[in-house]
Amino acid sequence: MVDYGWDTERERSFRPSRDEGLVPGRVVRAERGLCDVVAETGSVRAMVLPSSGTGERLTPCTGDWVAVRPAGPATSATVVEVLERRSAVVRSTSSRTSHAQVLASNVDTVAVIVSLADPLKLGRIERMLALAWESGATPVVVLTKADQSTDPASAASEVAEAAPGVEVLVTSATTGEGLDVLTAVLSGTVVLLGPSGAGKSTLGNRLLGEDHLATGAVRGSDGKGRHTTAWRELLPLPHGGVLLDTPGLRGVGLHDADDGLDHVFAEIGELARDCRFADCAHTTEPGCAVLAAVEDGRLTQRRLDSYHRLQRENTYAAARTDARLRAELERPMKQLSRQVRALKQSSHFKA
């Protein structure tokens, strides 16, 4: 299991579970009620016990380390517990409840995949990087399909401005450009995140050294990719570490990503230290150092607009799961509604 990331620290913490007859394993593929686990004795198909008030603890996802009770003469192998997650890539679901969905756990490197065959969407890259930073892993932006770009160097420079502190690599699975550098940069458990058609599975196959992951052509009608990866799967890499391929993400909602946004927009945080007011919102306040930076060209308006948009979304998602915060956000609207009603009533009586 060392090839999958098991280490001495996890072994020490797992000793009491061994005394109870449990064995450790890592989830390489998870389905509803079942998961494939690689354990010391080999691959195991294990049942997942229904949650009994412990919530997410008994809901394993790909990348989780779990405690497994081996199969007996009349029983199947069973996942008893999900071990502590050192990191987790989490997004908000699109439902009204805004529940968190764990896309991958115990990840060391998040590779944000961006196709150079399509127009760059910097806002989407910033959104993905917020998830990556929030996970606790190290993000890397991988620009794919460089052979289909007229000026990959310029594109890389543009992306780098939207990804401060993040390595941006230009690659082509067709020509092999940048793959040696990418292999050297990736470490530990690596998850590939990006939309369908960005080249995740093709890139993954080059890293694996074999065509294990299904690939498909991009639709000519709209330039969008088909979902060739139907589930999240963990696979060992020949140069060490493991690769976690994911289905293409059509939508990525932020979930409690304050730290991630601080990393993505680090330069705005630095500028904000010189604002006149500590709680400056960087919209219309006097003495705002961020707005001053936009005026003199040190910060682009696009970058500030993206910051505001993602901050609002993150706050709104938190409000949907935090009753107190939701009440605070709703209070100004309620006050405004009361004022409007009072004004209407006053006008009515005057008439």
UniProtKB/TrEMBL annotation:
<keyword id="KW-0694">RNA-binding</keyword>
<comment type="subunit">
    <text>Monomer. Associates with 30S ribosomal subunit, binds 16S rRNA.</text>
</comment>
<feature type="binding site">
    <location>
        <position position="280"/>
    </location>
    <ligand>
        <name>Zn(2+)</name>
    </ligand>
</feature>
<dbReference type="InterPro" id="IPR030378">
    <property type="entry name" value="G_CP_dom"/>
</dbReference>
<feature type="domain" description="CP-type G">
    <location>
        <begin position="97"/>
        <end position="252"/>
    </location>
</feature>
<keyword id="KW-0378">Hydrolase</keyword>
<feature type="binding site">
    <location>
        <begin position="194"/>
        <end position="202"/>
    </location>
    <ligand>
        <name>GTP</name>
    </ligand>
</feature>
<dbReference type="InterPro" id="IPR004881">
    <property type="entry name" value="Ribosome_biogen_GTPase_RsgA"/>
</dbReference>
<keyword id="KW-0690">Ribosome biogenesis</keyword>
<keyword id="KW-0547">Nucleotide-binding</keyword>
<keyword id="KW-0963">Cytoplasm</keyword>
<comment type="similarity">
    <text>Belongs to the TRAFAC class YlqF/YawG GTPase family. RsgA subfamily.</text>
</comment>
<dbReference type="InterPro" id="IPR010914">
    <property type="entry name" value="RsgA_GTPase_dom"/>
</dbReference>
<comment type="function">
    <text>One of several proteins that assist in the late maturation steps of the functional core of the 30S ribosomal subunit. Helps release RbfA from mature subunits. May play a role in the assembly of ribosomal proteins into the subunit. Circularly permuted GTPase that catalyzes slow GTP hydrolysis, GTPase activity is stimulated by the 30S ribosomal subunit.</text>
</comment>
<keyword id="KW-0862">Zinc</keyword>
<feature type="binding site">
    <location>
        <begin position="144"/>
        <end position="147"/>
    </location>
    <ligand>
        <name>GTP</name>
    </ligand>
</feature>
<dbReference type="InterPro" id="IPR027417">
    <property type="entry name" value="P-loop_NTPase"/>
</dbReference>
<feature type="binding site">
    <location>
        <position position="282"/>
    </location>
    <ligand>
        <name>Zn(2+)</name>
    </ligand>
</feature>
<dbReference type="Pfam" id="PF03193">
    <property type="entry name" value="RsgA_GTPase"/>
</dbReference>
<protein>
    <recommendedName>
        <fullName>Small ribosomal subunit biogenesis GTPase RsgA</fullName>
        <ecNumber>3.6.1.-</ecNumber>
    </recommendedName>
</protein>
<keyword id="KW-0479">Metal-binding</keyword>
<feature type="binding site">
    <location>
        <position position="288"/>
    </location>
    <ligand>
        <name>Zn(2+)</name>
    </ligand>
</feature>
<keyword id="KW-0699">rRNA-binding</keyword>
<keyword id="KW-0342">GTP-binding</keyword>
<feature type="binding site">
    <location>
        <position position="275"/>
    </location>
    <ligand>
        <name>Zn(2+)</name>
    </ligand>
</feature>
<feature type="domain" description="EngC GTPase">
    <location>
        <begin position="105"/>
        <end position="250"/>
    </location>
</feature>
